[in-house]
Amino acid sequence: MKKLFTLLMLCGVLSFGSSADVFAQGATTTQTTTTADEDTAAQAAPVVQDTQTTTDPTPEADVLGAEGEEAGFHQSVKTKFIEGGWEFMGIVLLCLILGLAVAIERIITLNMATTNTKKLLARVEDALATGGVEAAKEVTRNNSSPVASIFTQGLMRSSEGIDMVEKSIISYGSVEMGRLERGLVWISLFISLAPMLGFMGTVLGMIEAFDNIERQGDISPVVVANGIKIALLTTVAGLIVAVILQLFYNYCVSKIDSLVNKMEDASIALVDMLVRHQLARR
């Protein structure tokens, strides 16, 4: 199910990029058509009306200007992407798409794993008081959070003593922590890989620029500036991807730390609860 969700997220990101390009092209076409209509009307209208139109700008002109700026931004991004070379720029873009897919899947999974530990502890304590350990197991089994899974493992060892309960909680807590951290290694890989690919593209671009200088026999400012600009575009793209993915990575790490702290506190509360329950039975 998680793999299917990741594939759906990947398709969604790709569809978003395609729709943005279509929107940009539609905005450019609309601006061109509107400009052509205005030129035709200006030629057919008298000189007095043309002068009045020039001196009295309308809000429609501002709207067309805003659409033109948006279309120009998208066109500039596409132009820079092509200038940087599709070989490395495409790989860097793929790192961004895959990294975002994994990060979004992790964020949703971590948010679903979050539960109200105080409410869960209260329900477990009520179940222990009314129905004993078996009733408490039913409460924890009906909850899919990592804290409830740790409670289930601890309650299953309650008949063997408090020491076994603590060992079981510690062992299964490590398992749940590993599950929470699953997938972060891929985000970290893409964070490291994107700048390295950008630097590699820059180095290869500089080599190509020096080859052009060697073939021409002199240092032309046009050749040098154009080659260096194209070479540095891959580095900029790699750094942008790394910054975006780093933000998602830090959010996931902070979320995992919060969940682990809640699991530790709840586990201690469960052990104390079992001790009180056993003392009450005596």
UniProtKB/TrEMBL annotation:
| A single cellular component GO annotation | plasma membrane
Where is the chain membrane-spanning? 88-108, 184-207, 227-249
Signal sequence span is: 1-20
What is the annotated localization of this protein? Cell membrane; Membrane
Give UniProt keywords alphabetically: Cell membrane, Membrane, Protein transport, Signal, Transmembrane, Transmembrane helix, Transport
Note the topology in the membrane. Multi-pass membrane protein
For this entry, list what GO says about its biological process. Answer: protein import
MotA/TolQ/ExbB proton channel domain segment(s): 144-264
Q: What PANTHER family does the record point to?
A: BIOPOLYMER TRANSPORT PROTEIN EXBB, PROTEIN TOLQ
Q: Which family does it belong to?
A: Belongs to the exbB/tolQ family.
Q: What is this protein called?
A: Biopolymer transport protein exbB
* Organism ancestry: Bacteria, Pseudomonadati, Bacteroidota, Cytophagia, Cytophagales
